[in-house]
Target: NADH:ubiquinone reductase (non-electrogenic)
Amino acid sequence: MSAARPRVVIIGGGFGGLFCARRLARVDVDVTLLDRAACHVFQPLLYQCATGTLSIGQISRSLREELEHHENVRTLLGEAIRLDPAGRRVTARRPDDSTFDLDYDYLVIAAGMRQSYFGNEDFAAWAPGMKTLDDALSIRRRVFAAFEIAETLPPGPERDQWLTFAVTGAGPTGVELAGQIRELATRALANQFHSIEPEDARVLLFDGGDRVLKTFAPDLSARAQRVLEDLGVEMRFGVRVSDVRRDGITVSPKDGSPDADVATRTVLWTAGVEAVPFARHAAEVLGATTDRSGRIAVDADLSVPNHREVFVIGDLTGRDGLPGVAENAMQGGMHAAACMRRDLQGKRRKNFRYRDLGSAAYISRGHALMQLGPVKLSGLSGWIGWGFIHIAFLTGVRNRFSTVGTWLATIARSNRSDRTFILGGSGHPEEPYTWESPVHQGGSSRDTSGEDKTA
Ligand SMILES: Cc1cc2nc3c(=O)[nH]c(=O)nc-3n(C[C@H](O)[C@H](O)[C@H](O)COP(=O)(O)OP(=O)(O)OC[C@H]3O[C@@H](n4cnc5c(N)ncnc54)[C@H](O)[C@@H]3O)c2cc1C
Model:
């Protein structure tokens, strides 16, 4: 360790990185929090942003603003691209493609997971995932534009394609998205079109398992399924989406029955997660083992074997089946900070113990699930509990107040206040009007940073 104060570099300002940085504010170290997006995103509410209830500003907060009173913490915009464990140096890329180096005594890798297409990266061009603000805005554009395009078409198969929405993955995110699109179609949009009937929109939810929300108890999952059926969501289980194209998908049943093509112009992908590219590189140069999705194996104190100075926290942690949920990331961040403090005090590190504070999933207006040990809530009581939890953990007091205000207005008026979507504006070749162009596809700026999660 260097003679000056120990330098801590944290990669990623999600739940794990942010909680680690906050906890280190009281420790005698200099902290650099590096994030490729410079803001903390409250991922559990991304779907509300995608479907027009909340704005991106309500579910995110600038890390610089969030940490402005933590004098020993600086925040930097940049994407970690290289790790030199022997030299204890991280190289980061700025958005203009230039690079800079950060030296560390302690490194905390909290870069999260990104959507996985199971090796079919070409699907991403037609089927955005749901991990970043870019994803949420891309989904918003596709969903609202699909209704608008359908309005301009005569009745027939082409219009029907635009009014068919396919969602892959029946975990919490897929369920939330599917339910929200049907709610949009049957409430907020119901009386606003002249040519189409928005409530005719079909929402298809595909999953390889045999029920929705399989991390929840079977009775809760069955209740969620009934609510979705009442909403009009069509569920297909025991299937895999094996191809995604501009104008449709192919669905392959796991029992070997023949494949079926579904004509749709809107596909939303929530089916799997994998480690961000930097994490895979880091694992390799650190000589660490990873699981199939790229989670990095760590010792009981969350440090990488043979690298006591490197911690892996949050979704990237590969140990004891730790869940990919916000609570695990927050507790991991605070634990890594506590280990560093104990090192400086000459005390032995403690092992990480995850305390399960339960899971929650939103189904539709007035319906959510909550599960904590033997306590199971659904319907209205689950919905109220879900609301309290999400407000409690949303970053920033202003965001909490404005989100509660927006929710109350949405409940009272059934409208969506953040429906604005952006198409290319200038006519410049790099800003085309149509999103089905190489520029938009290449520029979807997928985060290098989920299987689906619950609270
Ligand atoms: C749609 C959705 C809904 C969810 N709902 C719930 C829920 O209801 N309850 C719940 O408990 N959990 C939920 N989760 C899971 C929860 O959000 C994650 O478990 C949690 O965010 C993980 O925290 P993390 O710090 O490990 O990673 P993240 O929060 O993903 O943060 C990673 C950060 O690292 C940054 N980053 C990535 N790569 C780099 C790089 N190379 N260089 C620099 N920065 C980088 C990213 O910009 C990001 O800010 C949900 C997740 C999603 C996607």
